[in-house]
Amino acid sequence: MSNFQRPFFLFIFMLAWGVFSLSQDVAAKVFNPETFTLKNGMQVVVVSNHRAPIVSHMVWYKVGSADELEGKSGLAHFFEHLMFKGTPSYPDGEFSKLVAQNGGQENAFTSSDYTAYYQTVAVDRLELMMRLEADRMTNLALTKEVIEPERLVILEERRQRVDNKPRSLLAEQMSASLFLNHPYRNPVIGWAHEIEKLSLEDLRKFYKKWYAPNNAILVVAGDITAAQLKPLAEKYYGVIPRNPDLQKRNRAEEPPHRVPRRLVLKDARVRQPIWSRTYLAPSLVKSDKATPYALEVLAELLGSGSKSRLYRELTFKKKLTVSAGASYSMGGRDHSRFSLYGSPTPQTSIEQLEAALEAEIASLLKDGLSQIEVDEAKQRLVDSAAFARDSLTAGARVLGAAIASGQTVDDVEAWPSRISLVTKEQVMEAAKMVFKPSHSVTGLLLPEDKQVAK
Amino acid sequence: MYKKILFSLLFSCLLSVSAKAVEIEKVTGKNGVEAWLVEDHTNPIITVSLAFRGGSALDPKGKEGVSNFVSGLLDEGAGELDSQAFRGKMEDLSISLSFRAGLERFTGTLATLSKNKDEAFNLLRLALTKPRFNQEAVTRIRSQIQASLKQASQNPNVIASVAFEEALFPNHPYSRPTDGTEETLATLTVDDLKEFVKKRLAKDNLIIGVVGDITPQQLAAVIDKTFSDLPDKAAPWELPEVLPAKGNKPIIIDRPIPQSVIRVGQVGVKRKHKDFYPAYVLNYILGGGSFSSRLYKEIREKRGLAYSPYSYLYPMNSSSLFAGGAGTANERVGETVDVLLKEWRRMETNGATAEEVNNAKTYLTGSFPLRFSSSSNIASILVSMQLNELGDQFLNERNKFVEAVTLEQVNKVAKSLLDTDNLVVVIVGQPKGLKQ
User: Fold this and answer.
1) I need a surface site. Which of A125, A251, B130, B203 has the fewest CB within 10 A?
2) Domain A8-236 maps to which CATH number in 3.40.1190.20, 3.30.830.10, 3.10.450.50, 3.40.190.10?
3) Is A351 a catalytic residue?
């Protein structure tokens, strides 16, 4: 019942393609957006949806936790909180007050690859939102008085989201273990000891470095067209000077992975064990542009829904798990992840579960797939577009996240047709490529001090 | 037969917004079952939201969790289709169908591409009227629910909720666990499940909202086909009226976690009570209005004590709650509870300011149209209008009710309703610094 979440962070793979489902007709586009670019380099995307006279106004910055300097984890997310604090024109909470007075709802989120701010509001209040959002792109006033209480809030946020939950603690350690060198190893919210030390100077430098129109994307979804939006975008965002020194996003690269990793968290708070394994996998942006689509089909047929192999074999037939599944999302600028999970029945040990899951993967690699399960998985994925189009915010979120992570509008719009082109052979090749033990981390969440099961 | 009512979705004295009409049509089948429809052919999809009055509060003592158990099994095989066949059909046709047991309602949602609507409504019909409850599915879903109960039992928020409800509603169905317990789950039988379906899913307690690519004529035919086999009447029930208990000292549940979960609560205002709207505005000012509430400013913004302090108003059929809470490091619980109670008392004693009431009203009226952002949101609005008996003119009237609230009304309710001295306080964690 806690009913709002101001500045929260999203893990990079949460805004997954898998979250929404796409269209009945293969040739159909997904969101049919219009795009243009302002003279200062700011990209604009418009998704028209005229159901109600409302709009969702979002600004996405191409900076996330993976762009932080070493030893400064949590900077991107800390900064997201500060964006609500005030400018000379709208000091001291004036921003949120104006949004609320105009019946608007707002929030923001941070991932490894981006930071985004949004308001949902009646369309005739859009201009005010644009004035406010453009103002805080470069005019934020940061002081010691402002950052210190916010630091405490963020540490409470970390306790709430991570430290109070054994499952989140394990997930955090698994990420740190999966990525040997790339900054995806750090939690988006940051490590507590580093959050405690971030300075006013760190935050100011970060702002100057990344917050500029040529590093931002404006996405507006709702009761508006590009022709209507353009003059407003030029008036408010078009006048902000570009940052001539905008840097490339350089992240440390992964060395070859040579050894499977295994983490066991035993915690007195745990009563239901969970087994999971995450493999390093390619993102669309840094791939051959074919494998990620095959991996999405693979995840669907292997572990999504009750017809999937894992549920059918482990939960339905063998009665070893209460749930089992797989997931993959092609999002992410540099890397992605392919995950398997299962939770045992009381009669099953975690070792039995692991052996059974591994046997499923082995049999898939050895015996292959049937054409029909590939076709059905593709159809389910392609069907999901019609549902995605229905929501006011889904298009804005998917397009914003994709572009901010290095994909193009075309990548988003062509998704259903590319999924429909995936062949059985490609799915098999992708499976052989991704299921390498040396590229994986296995995580066991177990109760403390006693046998999990017989 | 259809009855058309036009609503102007957007209207407001404070916001001049271009009006757009949401047209609600009441569609009634030959079987007497009525559905409220918002027709929209923009996308080839249909979304249905349905609710049976009743809910887990009616689960018999000792059989807590039966409604939740049924909700997990209705889509696990029905009619001629066993679990794999039923779910296979859903997945092959991209039909999503699911059920949920709430405290006072048993709900279902159906979403389908319009081209598959006959199959989709047929699955809904089978699920509601011919569930199989095969042994295999019953065993599998039972162990899933038990696993999720085990998981919930380690979640500090759930631990707090359970203790909070027990403290507020001792010995009343409102304090019984909605999803049951591991013990009750173990004893529930197929006969219990069948009994639930027979008694609780009927025409006379069913409420339906439909949005999307379907005409009233098509919907009328669908209503006949889908719901005719339901019994006419649900078994009678009674849920005794109850006032939430008062608290004297904090209830502390010791758990080894770094952050304590704090809950406070007292009696609220029921949905149809004349004080509902003043209390609704009051709650916005105290802790409901996310970034501008007093709790947000005092607990989070000024002192950095918590990430999301909040309050909410929760009207039920036979009671009502006004509650709040926050999560903070164990070391800072004393200070956080102090500030929380101080703000509660300040509102009780001094009330709100004219500016606060005005700002609350502008937000609450201006943000109302934002609820119409997806088919599933609209379908659930159609259902809650009917469940709460708000009348078919509600969309036109709702903002007027909010507009009409005065500072005097808000302050009168603050004084008569808020009861800081007798708040129930529940804390899960290892809190420090609490005053005795």
Assistant:
1) B130
2) 3.30.830.10
3) no
| pLDDT score recorded for residue B290 | 75
List the single best residue of A49, A119, A153, A274 to mutate versus B (max B Cβ within 10 A). Answer: A153
E strands, B29-168, in order? 34-39, 45-53, 96-101, 105-113
Distance (Å, whole) CA A377 – CA A382: 9
CB contact under 8 A, B291 and A160: no
- Identify the pLDDT of residue A16: 33
Task: Give Cα A404 to chain centroid, integer Å.
Answer: 11
Residue of B nearest to A304 (CA): B91
Tokens of B218: 């098509």
The answer to whether A28 faces chain B, any CB pair under 8 Å, is no
Query: Rounded to an integer, what distance in angstroms lies between the CA atom of residue B202 and that of residue B296?
Result: 44
Domain at A261-447, CATH class:
alpha beta
Answer whether B292 touches A (CB < 8 Å). Answer: yes
Q: ipTM of this model?
A: 0.89
From the candidates A34, A68, A80, A373, give the one annotated as an active-site residue. Answer: A80
B183 contacts: CB under 8 Å, gap ≥ 6? none
pLDDT tens-digit map of B310-328 = 999 999 999 999 999 999 9
The CATH superfamily holding the domain B251-382+389-429 is Metalloenzyme, LuxS/M16 peptidase-like (3.30.830.10)
Per the CB < 8 A criterion, the answer to whether B49 and B109 are in contact is yes
Summary count for chain A: helices (H), strands (E): 16, 12
CA distance A231 to A225: 11
What three-state secondary structure class fits A262? strand
